[in-house]
Inverse folding.
């Protein structure tokens, strides 16, 4: 005890022996990285016929799906107070979960119960991660970049260890994951998103030129080896939209656009035949017109008889196939699984993110979000994932986390933040 200048007797506080805030914050970031990594791994679907490792399909799927309970445990340990940050994006995603439960209660759709509960657990993890949205250090973006780089590194390792299997791509002649079985379209998705995020970070001076060239060059090479046109178009469109939001303020964006336009003009004049051959991928005119056979599935799916309930709420979550063939369209897969309700919610998610980004101040966070939303919008026509557990849903979650206002609570170390 001591007396202060006013003569009042005061109790001296003991000196805290806790770790410095910087140490606590580093520990927190590591825990967030681990939690996000497990959640990301849960979104990696196990595909048979791509890996050179003799992993049974049942074992591989069990490994991927068992990551969700672990992710729930980790997020609960990270956010022990169950502090949730209100946001419209996850409210819309939660509507998808509620619609899935409504369909799963029908007796003829009992097989969708597992997928419905899995989606509910996945969305619960996303809600529990919301206290770390809006951080100035872009923590979730860095977690996303780290996991994308890790997955693409496994693809490169598989290419080195088993080049024939990796380049077979499920007998399509395209690069796939030979270590962990990943189809070429998903490999292209990861490569395209990683390239775009790195380029946008470079736009705003957050990444060095050499590092950007190394990462983007390697990712583009992987993307080209996958021969995936959707990912390439989504990457270009996303970079253009993100760059246009920065073109007034960033000189390097103007220089890159000018250089890119000149290179594109020269390439079209001199390499048009080779580019057309690469885009055709050896397909006939009929194959190109029906989008590699996709429209053969879309027509019968739309013509399939439905009652009023099935037209509005669909048949329930499935493996995104129809008559044993992949649907390969988020909008038609949503219509098949959750009817017009699911289609409207998916459209609302994209429209909400685009409108929110429009009203954000010009800068890095807005540009990153615009890239992710634009890429997912382009990919939604030939890929699936918005209404199920997928990396596309994580892409949009990262975009939504960039569009919330900065929260001081999200910067607090684990000793004083939501983790306690």
């Amino acid at each position: 005890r001591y007396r202060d200048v006013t003569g009042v007797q005061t109790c001296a506080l003991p000196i805290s022996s806790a770790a410095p805030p910087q140490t606590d914050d580093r520990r927190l970031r590591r825990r967030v990285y681990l939690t996000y990594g497990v959640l990301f791994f849960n979104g990696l679907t196990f595909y048979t016929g791509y890996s050179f490792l003799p992993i049974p399909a049942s074992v591989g799927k069990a490994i991927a799906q068992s990551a969700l309970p672990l992710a729930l445990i980790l997020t609960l340990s990270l956010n022990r107070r169950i502090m949730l940050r209100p946001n419209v994006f996850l409210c819309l995603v939660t509507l998808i979960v509620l619609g899935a439960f409504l369909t799963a209660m029908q007796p003829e759709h009992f097989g969708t119960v597992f997928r419905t509960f899995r989606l509910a657990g996945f969305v619960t993890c996303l809600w529990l991660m919301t206290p770390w949205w809006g951080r100035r250090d872009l923590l979730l973006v860095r977690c996303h970049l780290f996991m994308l780089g890790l997955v693409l590194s496994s693809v490169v390792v598989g290419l080195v260890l088993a080049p024939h299997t990796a380049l077979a791509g499920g007998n399509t002649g395209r690069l796939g994951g030979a270590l962990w079985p990943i189809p070429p379209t998903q490999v292209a998705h990861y490569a395209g998103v990683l390239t775009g995020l790195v380029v946008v970070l470079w736009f705003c001076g957050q990444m060095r030129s050499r590092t950007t060239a190394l990462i983007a060059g390697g990712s583009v090479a992987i993307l080209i080896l996958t021969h995936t046109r959707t990912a390439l178009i989504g990457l270009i469109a996303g970079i253009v939209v993100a760059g246009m939001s920065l073109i007034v303020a960033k000189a390097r964006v103007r220089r890159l656009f000018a250089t890119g336009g000149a290179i594109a003009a020269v390439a079209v004049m001199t390499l048009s035949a080779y580019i057309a051959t690469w885009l055709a991928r050896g397909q006939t005119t009929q194959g190109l017109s029906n989008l590699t056979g996709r429209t053969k599935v879309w027509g019968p799916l739309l013509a399939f008889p439905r009652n009023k309930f099935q037209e509005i709420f669909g048949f329930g979550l499935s493996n995104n196939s129809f008559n044993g063939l992949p649907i390969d369209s988020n909008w038609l897969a949503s219509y098949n699984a959750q009817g017009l309700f699911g289609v409207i919610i998916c459209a609302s998610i994209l429209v909400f993110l685009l409108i929110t980004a429009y009203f954000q101040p010009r800068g890095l966070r807005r540009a990153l979000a615009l890239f992710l939303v634009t890429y997912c919008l382009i990919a939604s026509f030939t890929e699936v994932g918005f209404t199920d557990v997928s990396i596309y849903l994580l892409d949009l979650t990262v975009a939504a986390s960039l569009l919330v206002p900065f929260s001081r609570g999200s910067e607090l170390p684990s000793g004083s933040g939501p983790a306690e």
